[in-house]
Specification:
alpha+beta, name from scop, 4 strands, globular
């Protein structure tokens, strides 16, 4: 049968948000196939949380690199950032960081969002 056994090429996008420099999160990387796999591998290598969201990654992939996330995507991106904050806080709890450090906002450079096209 046609299409059976075919896997879809992975898509990946990475965002960065530095509230001291940026008015909104920015797209820092995007790619499909081997490039997407490299983005995901680099994120994992550097301990950056990876979250799968096929719909959002598809939309983010249509943006230009270093473009600010458009306002209509703020809610979806806010959910991703909240996920990252939770993951960082869990990591800090496992590392027994002092409570004042545990709940501070982590740096958000290059947080990947992963999906499949």
């Amino acid at each position: 049968m046609k299409g059976q056994g075919r896997t879809k090429a992975p898509l990946a996008a990475a965002i960065r948000y530095n509230p001291l420099k940026d008015s909104a999160p920015r797209l820092t990387a995007k790619g499909s196939g081997l490039i997407a796999e490299k983005i995901i591998d680099l994120a994992k290598k550097h301990g950056i949380p990876v979250r799968e969201d096929p719909d959002l990654v598809h939309i983010l992939s249509s943006l230009e690199i270093d473009q600010e996330i458009p306002p209509e995507l703020y809610r979806a991106v806010a959910e991703i950032l909240a996920f990252i904050y939770r993951m960082n806080n869990r990591w800090r709890e496992r590392k027994n960081c002092p409570s004042e450090e545990k709940y501070s906002l982590p740096p958000l450079d290059g947080r990947p969002i992963r999906g499949f096209d």
